Amino acid sequence: MATGKSDISGWLVRPASGHLWAGLAALLGALTLHTVLVTSGGGMDNAIVVDAARTWLAGGSPYDDPHFLYFPSAVAAAVPQALLPRPVLDVLVPPAVTAALALGWACALRLHRVPLRSRLAALGLLALAAGFAPFGQLVRLGNWTVTAALALPLCLLLASRGRWVAAGAVIGVAVALKPLLAPMALLFLFARRWRALAVLVLVPSVASVAAALLLPDPTGFLTRTLPFLLRGDDAFVRLYEASPAAVLPRLGVPEAPAALLGLVAAAVGVVCAYRRWRGPGPVPLRLSETSAGLMLSAFLVSRPSYNHYLLVVLPLLLAGLPYAGAVARRPWFWLALVPQLPGVTWPWLESVRRRAFRDAFTLCALAVTVAHHCVRGARGADGPDGAPGRERAAVESA
Question: Where would you find the membrane-spanning parts of this chain (predicted)?
Answer without folding.
Answer: 20-37, 92-111, 118-135, 166-190, 196-215, 258-277, 308-326
